[in-house]
Amino acid sequence: MPSRSSNPHLALWIAATGLSHGEIARRIAAEAIRQGHRQIAPDATRVRRWIDGERPRPPVPALLAAVLSAALGQPLTPGDLGLAAAGPTLDSIQLPLLTEAAAQTLAGCTQMDLFLDRRDTLKLALGAPLILAAERMLGGTARRLGPGTKGFDDATTTALEEVTAFFTKSDASKGGGLYRKAIVAQLAEAARRIEDGIPPSLKARVFAATADLAALAGWVSHDCGRYATAQRYWSYGIYAAGEAGQRDRGVEIVTRMSHQMIYLGHPGDALGLLELAAAKAQRPVVKALVASQTGRVHAALGDERGADRHLGQADELVAAGLGDDVPQWVAYFDAAEHAGARAVSARDLNGIGGRNRRASDHFADALALRKPGFDRVKVMDRVGLAAALFEEGEPEQAAAAAQQALDEAARVDSTLVASRLNTLLDAARPYRTAAVDEVRTRAKDLAAARPTTVAA
Question: Distance between alpha carbon 31 and the CA centroid of its chain, in Å?
């Protein structure tokens, strides 16, 4: 199966058929004759060029979709093959100009994700293309939706909102691994219905729910190690938020993209995304989220002064109150979440020679403030607390905290938790006592059972 392509959608669907490029070309020519297009006769080289990014002219995209649909026994559209009319492509992030085209792009991504059940074969966008893509998406390039009514009514819109709320709650509690396929399948259904059309009176609700679902699909994909897939879902979520008239919703999704960049070791890209987010944020809670995350990134970059400045801004915003109308999609950001950002920042700054900061105090604050239902992040806080205590020279307390963390971590399916376990192992390395050895053995076993995956 191809691993690199300028049109990964087309490459993956052709690979799924098992047919050679020459056979694909022969079937297109036969289908063209059947439909009365006698002048169309591609060869294997032309098929290869399409996979490499060349755009065939109509009616070839429709002919190709018909051939692949027949070969796979599954209906496909030109949008599924990456051949629909869309906006500019920036390092494989699609920026659709029409709602219907956006839905086609999303449908193709979700179908490949579910049908091929693969690890990421898409290219992760980094650097200037990533920042430019986010800037374009936050700027809003959507056009008016056509006046269809087939896709959604009030009942189906309510159902979409309810199932999205259920999956969001489940992910926060147990991690995304168990629910990822169901979430992606629900997103695929939403995309299909959007293609069928939305009554104008329901447009804002449909796209708000779709933005929430796409943001969640991105997060659980990230939590399962499918990083480039997550980036595609997030890009659609930003677009859908714009269609819903919720600019701050798109800003919040950009902070998720920045979190991924930190996790994958690209703090400079994370900072670029957050600068865009800060310029667009409007609600106090979103401004506080962006400031807190920005401080976290400056800490990762070793910029102690920048970290203190932005974390201090978030302190002031949190202390002043985050508002009475905090939307559900950002309700997770509160004093506990900010304390977690401060804890990780203190840990990073201590690791690069900053002044001595007790990260354990901030992790303890976060744990004390966490609300019920956020089991995964509480596990991460508890693992972070144990690691911080090891680094602060308190191995007995650290071992006790680690045992509790490992009990809880065993009940959560998350590569993010597995990554924190590796941090715990590193922190425990200098100590050789029976209690610490037991922690080390348990953490290694659990980390091996839920390995982290770095995918391009």
Answer: 39
